[in-house]
Amino acid sequence: MSQDGRAPSGDPGRRAVLVLLALAAAYVLLLVSLFRPSGGLLGTYQVTGQGGEQIPVQTRVDPRIDFSVPQRIDDAYIFHWNMQRHGFPAAMPPYVVRWTGLLRAPRDGTYGFGIEVNGESKLAIDDTPLEIQPGSTAERTLSAGWHPITLDYTLTHEVDARLVLSWRPPGGSLRPIPAEALAPDRDATRDTGRRALGWILLAAGAGSVAGVLYASRREGSAAARLVSLLRGRRVALALGAIVILGAMLRFHDYDLVPFHHETADEYQHAWEGWTLLHEGVPKAWSTFPDRYPTEQTRDFRWFGDPYVLVWPYFDHPPLFSMIVGVVVSLAQPATYQPPWDFLSCTLPVMRVVPIVLSLAGILLLYRLAREYGATERAALLATLVYATLPLIVLAHRLVKAESLLSLLFMGAILCARGHDRTGRAGAALWAGTLAGLSIWCKATGVAVLVVVLVLLLSRGRRRGALMAFAVAGAFILLYLLYAWAFDFGLFLKVLKAQTTTKLVSMESLQDILAGKIVTKYFGRGWYLWLLLCAGIAALRRERALLVPLAVYATVIAMTADSRVIYGWYRIPIYPFLCVAAGILIEDMLEEADLYRVFPFAIAAVSTGVLYTMPEWMKQPEPAKILTMLFGLLALGPYLIRLAVDRPLTARLARAATWALLALFLLTNLGSIDRLLEIYSATRGLR
Known about the structure:
Helices cover 55% and strands 13% of the residues. The protein is α+β, with helices and mostly antiparallel strands. It folds into 5 domains: 1-12 and 28-38 and 192-232, no CATH class; 41-189, Toxin - Anthrax Protective Antigen, domain 1 (Alpha-Beta Complex), CATH 3.90.182; 265-350, no CATH class; 353-581, no CATH class; 592-681, no CATH class. Strand 14 and strand 15 form a beta hairpin. Helix 16 runs antiparallel to helix 21 (546-559). The longest helix has 27 residues, at 647-673. It starts with 11 loop residues before the first helix and ends in a 5-residue tail after the last helix.
């Protein structure tokens, strides 16, 4: 096994590892599908046509009628709109939704029903309307079994969509009706044993693993050989498992959070890429439409949001946009016709691109961590933080060029350090190529070139630095030729407009320290902890991590829009922060002392606890007890060890440290599971 965790070429174990990981991914997907709620109501999302008829936009089964935030209803219209059938969506259409199906009463008795609604709703059970006054419940006597239920919802958009259907079973409390009490039709009420099959498969999987481990105790057995083979490739298996986990977290509600149009830049990239590929001219909305001739602009409103489409578009370099354009083109329905084809680029398709790039980044991150001197375990811990931290997971869903820039940054550094070790010209040329592509990806990609040159020159590799600079310079020249091919004069006008909106100030430097996804604060404690890790690493042998961090942060501060430093600007520095975090977590687990554990507990762990704790625990008395318990866990074992350093107190401190790490990971998963509601309600810890 090589230092970076890769199996040697021709290694017979590589195929076994790949097959096992593929089987594990398929197994996880199967379990997820089997345990997914099977109940719900059939929702028909409609708009009113010219003659007053209701035209369906989407039909789907909703597990629960629990739309406490508008995104879950909005997406049925925004992501499934057919302009040829429904017309151009200049404004959000009035919502006309009907849910039909069956409601299961677990026993005879009187049931209370309540509706929280913005707009108008009509509920009928057993084909009999049920009048529910706002803020109150209406009661209905039901026999045990299934009952027809219909719910109609209309909204004309004076307010955001909101609809929550709750019930109070006999002897119970008011809560949203669970999926298992709903069914879209009679066929769905028949127990197919899907969940039971899931439990059987889960038990079978656990039993198989236990059986192989038990059989491996016999020397020379097939199980022993298999375990020995896999033990020798533990890094590849661990990385594969982390990638699978990262994929699951990134794809959970990925089209809903961050919100549609929270940043219109996501559509900017898709439109630029699609039009460049299909029309031969890049078109997208621009921040500087006044720099374009009037005949090269088009004003329109799309789902109520204003845009000014311009061409040829020069606000951003085209590399990332072309990748997004290829993906959305492959997924685009053939029924769409000009001139608005680019508007069929939807977030569920577009966001696949940054997510896939981020999963590749997990593998590069491991190699980067090893390159900076991290141990095998520290490098794996770094990738685990990168894969699970909600702040990073959310950022990796945004359709922003920084997702590609992050990979190019890591790759360029690996190539530069490879040239330093070996002196091979190819590594220097690759470093220059990746640096040049970084500039085609984002103007701030110039930081990649600066870091590559600094790394090579600091090691006395002047020839390599010259080669890298020459290759990157060729890419810059190609970019200027790209601009010249369309309209170089207009390119210079846009470039001048961009430079006049830049503001170098101490405020922009301070803004780099704020945890954000787009513009609102989110997960500031997590981000604070990452910065603390980088600060500590800067005082250790891993201080070389600070070079790309410092260069990129300074470039951002000097070139960011004067209005705000957006959250996605930080994406390229997350890998370096996570490398520092992985190294510090390993030290924390080894030493288990107050000085290493407390910053982690008070910043990172407490953030996840605050996001995932249920509402009843936020009341004064439960919150006081929880705070005391958390304080005891974060302080007690380490103070005891400081006072009396004995093997017993050391073991107690290590156990507490592992417990805090487990709590950190569990609250990460819990935060992502409830991300839509958490992000909607808080947008950051206050």
